[in-house]
Design goal:
The chain is built from eight helices and eight strands. The chain is of the alpha/beta class and about 270 residues long. Helix 2 packs across helix 4, helix 4 packs parallel to helix 7 and helix 5 packs across helix 8. The chain has one domain: Rossmann fold. The chain has a five-stranded mixed beta barrel.
Length: about 270
């Protein structure tokens, strides 16, 4: 009897997950609904399911994991994943992606423009992100900057120029606050730090990507102007902007990754 109990105990222990590698390997399948081998080596990240649906439509493929936390679609070694909103989800997806060791990750995010000259529909290619969210503090001290892969940002720039699309460069402030547009004190703070835009994910993605040695970049689409009352996003405005700009945003992202794939460029900006 003792032998049987001991054997059962050993079998149970066999299924314990003790290391990060074991955990993320299991969880990425649990969260996405697909096996690791089904992921492409080049990843597009989004917060919006319509991007995944449009990617699937363009490439005539199915959407996987619609009943899971992180639906996705894959074609030609590129996988697009809807990871949800906010910095905790951003940290989670970058930890999970360490299971597949992607060659490049590109975040197609939406942001609020903080400068008067930045208009709705403009693109921002962030040269860095300000870590105002707190989540990234679990990975590095605050002194460590949140930076993208330079080579990946260069590929995005080339894709934009090829399609004759202008863009802004600057910093993005990442916050955990979703409702702040009424707060004059917070707005004054945003003016002082001279950020070009504000979102809820970019700094976390850059920081946790660096932590996991994953090359990552971002292309942000300006969808509102939250510093002025008439610029605060509404459902009507958001729906209109999605129809006007989302597909262009997605296509630039796809073309950016294809450029890297076709030229076999390395996009690591540091030797890890």
């Amino acid at each position: 009897m003792n032998g049987i109990i001991g054997l059962a105990g050993n079998l149970i222990k066999k299924f314990y997950m003790k290391t990060k590698k074991e955990i993320v390997k299991d969880w990425i399948t649990r969260y996405s609904g697909i096996e690791i081998k089904s992921f492409g080596k080049f990843i597009l990240l989004t917060n919006f399911q319509q991007y995944v649906d449009e990617f699937a439509k363009i490439n005539n493929v199915k959407v996987d994991g619609l009943d899971k936390n992180m639906p996705s679609a894959s074609h030609d070694n590129i996988t697009i994943i809807n990871f949800g909103m906010g910095s905790p989800n951003a940290a989670t997806i970058m930890d999970l992606l360490s299971a597949i060791k992607p060659k490049a990750v590109l975040f197609l995010g939406k942001c609020g423009g903080l400068k008067k000259r930045i208009k709705i529909g403009d693109f921002i290619l962030p040269i860095g992100a300000i870590r105002g969210e707190g989540t990234s503090n679990d990975y590095f001290p605050i002194e460590v900057p949140a930076m993208p892969s330079f080579s990946l940002q260069r590929a995005i720039s080339s894709a934009l120029k090829y399609q004759k699309i202008d863009y802004w460069t600057g910093t993005v402030f990442t916050t955990n606050r979703r409702v702040w547009e009424f707060d004059s004190k917070f707005k004054n703070y945003l003016k002082k730090i001279r950020a070009y835009s504000i979102d809820m994910e970019t700094a976390t993605l850059f920081t946790v990507g660096f932590h996991n040695r994953i090359p990552i970049g971002a292309l942000l689409l300006v969808t509102d102007q939250p510093m002025i009352p008439e610029g605060v996003k509404t459902k009507i405005i958001d729906d209109k902007n999605s129809q006007l700009y989302d597909k262009k945003h997605l296509i630039v992202g796809i073309e950016s990754l294809k450029q890297i794939i076709n030229h076999e460029d390395t996009v690591r900006h540091l030797k890890f």
